[in-house]
Structure formats: structure tokens, C-alpha cells
Amino acid sequence: MKRNTSTKSSVSCETWGQLNGSSCIIKGVYPSDSGVYWCESDRGECSNTINIRVTTGVILESPAVPLTEGDSVTLNCSYKEKYAKESTSNFSTAFYRNGAFIGKRSEGRLMLIHVSKEDEGFYKCEHPTKGESPENWLEVRAATLSIHPSRSVFFYYETVTLSCAVPGSFSSWTVKRNTSTKSSVSCETWGQLNGSSCTIKGVYPSDSGVYWCESDRGECSNTINIRVTTGVILESPAVPLTEGDSVTLNCSYKEKYAKESTSNFSTAFYRNGAFIGKRSEGRLRLIHVSKENEGFYKCEHPTKGQSPENWLEVRGDDDDIRFCYGFEIEDESKTMIVQKRSIKQLILMNARSVERCKLQNSCTSLPKIHSRLLL
User: Which GO molecular function terms does the record list (predicted)?
Assistant: First the structure.
């Protein structure tokens, strides 16, 4: 566990907390503990980040991690004097989202039932005499369907596992599919269910179709198209890439009843029907992709013909933004910093300005915060 605060960067738990295995405990937080916290391995891999803010007065208690569509949550408005032992929520409370009044409660609790993306935003609460809380960002994510192996085209008899990623969700999600013969069929009918995952052992052309996650209240995830075939296939990602990612496209050939496929042949590659290159083995490496790399890809075996075309989607970096740090700068403008996933930029934002500050390619290089960064 590490943290960045206003005074120190990339400091391990041993310096500021009590380490217990992979957990870290701070007994008696203080404003100096406000900052960005994350997990980091000895090889430098980083987890998501969580922002912690320590203050007095009025606060809005909201989830530190994103909700999933369909979840329910209670936002709690509390007030506590600096040296008081207990906080209280027993007061008439006004609630706001994105600066707009959304309701008043006789006690400081706002219940959001079955949230959707429309509920996402900046929330704050107001005590009748003690003022407003700082704004908190409430993030709502859709469930995500993933697939293993991570591709969309498969040979006969391969094993495929589809999983619904719903971190922090209290909803029940299952994998469903549409095929050429049946629609909206749950995993229990065609696969082996294991929690929110579904495994097909020995896929067949009848398993070709569209797959998605669906909650017990009808919310749906992204979709993945699966195609089962023989002959030549192009193995490409089943889910979109983000600008800056790298990927290897693999051209494989397999006879219907053969045990193993092969990529050991001279291969021609095409994008949107145009020849883009030849490789002595069936692998095409795309480095740091951009939107220009998006398109329909296929490959060609020298004697066995071409693969079906696969769509390679590349999303802009702005499509996936996650919060790193929230604070109030010295001129009292409400601001926050968000980290862009793929190229590790920070965006410093207030109500009317955006300033981009490039980072080194490391989660430990968050810069110190200065008000001069504002426009």
C-alpha cells in the first residue's frame, strides 16, 4: 500500500500506518492523511486508486469505489465538530447533484434505488445552519463481459469462459446469448455456470452468436460476438483496445478434427480489404494503436485461403477516465484530478477550466498540486 499526500509522494504504509499483511490501518486520521492511496506490487504494477479526504464540519458519506448499474446506495450527510466524539445526521438536509437541488430529507440520508448512468455526478449536502459538504463524485459503471481466451473467433471443440465483471455490485448477473436458433437464453441451458461466469466446453458452430451479462432487473453489459469455425482464423481481441495499447493478431489454421492449430506459415494481412503486410509466421504486432488502426482485419494462408474478417475497435483515451485525487486548493476553488488510464495523464478540472499535465509512465509520479495550474 502506498499514498501521495500534499507533502510526500509514493510513501509506503510502514511510514504512516500499521501494516498487516496486504492491509494498512491508520488509527486516528488527520488532514495530513488526505491524499491518493493505491496498491503496488514489487514489480511496479498498480491497482485502482482511492481518494481519502479528512475534514471537520459537514461531510457527505458516499462510496469510495464505483457502483454498478442496478445497485442501490444510501448517501449519508453528517456533521461533527472538530473535537466532538460523535457525528450526527439528525438534521433536515438538502441534497444536490451537479450543483442542482434534487431533494430534501428530514434526516441526512438520501437513498438511490437501482442506480443508472443518469445518477452519476457530483453530490453534496447542506446542513441548515452549518453549511455545505465538499462535493463527492459518484461513479456508476455498467457490468463488463469478458472472455477467455480473449478473442472472438474459435475453432471447433475449444473451451471458452465468459465472465461478468461487476466489482462492488450487490446485483445478480448472469451470462445470456442469442444464436441463430434461440434468443435471450441463460447460461444454465448451454454452459456450466460458476458464480457470474459461464464455461462452454467444446464449442460448436451452434454456439456462434451474441453474448452479454444481464442482471435480475434487466440491466445489460457490453456484448461480445463469438464465431466458431474451421480452417483459417484471425485471433484478435474480443473487446475494444484503448489508444496506446499494443496487440498481436495471430493467424491460425486447423483442420476440423485436428488436435492442434498452427501459425507456422507465411501469412498476408489485410485491413479494410487492403494488403498491409506479410509475415514469415502468422503474427502481426500492432504497437501503440490509435484510431487509425481501427478496422476490419483478416489474414491469408498461402494455400488454405483467407480468414473471416474481424473488427478491431480502438477507443480514444478520453473514453475511460478514473478519479485519482480530490482536494481544495488555496484559492478555495473546488477542483479534482482524474487519471487517464492508458497514457497516464492527469486532468486538473474546475467548473470552467481544464489543464492537462503529462505524467511519466508511472503511477508513483503524481505531481505536487499548485494553483498556478488552473487556467
Answer: transmembrane signaling receptor activity
